[in-house]
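The instructor's notes for this session suggest beginning with a concrete chain rather than abstract definitions. Hand out the sequence below and ask the class to guess, before any prediction is shown, which regions might be ordered.
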Amino acid sequence: MAPAAGGTFQISGSSSTPVDIFFTLPAALGPNLGIGTWTGLSNTSNSSDSATALTVSAGPPTRTLGPSGKLHVWVGATLTTSGAAAGSYAVPVVLTVVYN
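After discussion, reveal the predicted structure:
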């Protein structure tokens, strides 16, 4: 699933504040439904079309909140199925923000 169609987060704080973004990412959605590579985007406006690539699986990326004090983040991943049962699957993706 592409980041723009995946999970979305909005970070708020004081304008132009740098933040470190930490992700806690699951390895699977369920039995026989593995999660591969995670990808992300970030933008100070709520538009994934003009967003910047964000590496979500390596170290905490640092971004700066926009003039409005907001940062938008989108995450997606590659799924691998191997005989997974049809249905809906959900697992938490945790985003932790440290203001610098």
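Then share the key points. The longest strand covers residues 70-81. The chain has one domain: 3-82+91-99.
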